[in-house]
Amino acid sequence: MKKSIYYILFFLILSFQLFAEVSNSGNKSIEKREQFHNLFFGPEFLYSHFRVEEDFRKFSSNGFYGGLRVRYEYLKPWIFYYGNDLFASYGNSNSKLSFADTEVMNVWETGGFGNIDVRLGYPFVNRATFVPYLGLGEYFNFKIGSGRIVHIEYFYISGGYRFRYEISPKFRIGQDSKFFNVISATLKDNFSKIRYHETDFWGCEITLPFIWLFTKNWSFQFEPYFLKLNFSSTENLYGGRLLFGYHF
Q1: Which end of the chain, N or C, is less packed with Cβ atoms under 10 Å?
Q2: At CA 132, angle to CA 28 and CA 1, rounded to 5?
């Protein structure tokens, strides 16, 4: 609980700092007023790591996934923001269990990871762009192995911001933060039998976009990110996105 409070306080302080940056950045808008629609698409790669040590037992799990992300954003400066992300991936994970330094399990499984996210916000736009928003969505993860399918769903409500700053006419940097409260987490066998259910825990996703503008309508951005599905868990996820943008 204390860790969640520290994360949220840091998020609020950073939000106020970025909002102040927008307020002091002058009146030059970096979001072209005639281009309200933004479509992004491209590959995404993800690495997950989980490790637990208890007495003489050690368990670790590492997953590698690759897939496709599609994003649509409508941004009308000082009026309205809407964002929608769809991500699906496929890959492999390796789980190991050892007891007293002796390995007793080493299993490879195929599986997938994905996300559906919807956001509504209000854009503050000068030379920098700051968009606080509220949203909802779902993370999902499945593994196939030993004759069964294990499927985990995380339904959440979220709050966060999208920040962009113009370094030059052709290059921008950003920082996106999303904090979410998981209202329902369910683990199922073969997509039907419920084995585990949990509610009301917190997570976050932190992203650092680097954006290059090629023409009036086309851009490219690299987005490394960190994802924590549950602050009380030792699992961490690290990823990167290579997104082409079309603006119209």
Answers
A1: N
A2: 145
Domain that holds residue 44: 2-237
CA distance 165 to 171: 9
Q: Is residue 13 part of a domain?
A: yes
Which amino acid appears at position 80 of this protein? F
pLDDT given at position 191: 58
**Inside any domain, residue 247:** no
Give the CATH number of the domain where residue 143 resides.
Answer: 2.40.128.100
pLDDT at 18 over 60: no
pTM here is: 0.83
Residues in the chain: 248
Instruction: Please choose, from the candidates 228, 231, 185, 221, the residue with its C-alpha nearest in 3D space to the C-alpha of residue 206.
Output: 228
What DSSP line would sit under 213-235, residue for residue? Answer: E-SSSEEEEEEEEEEES-TTSS-
The total number of structural domains that make up the chain: 1
Whether 246 is covered by a domain: the verdict is no
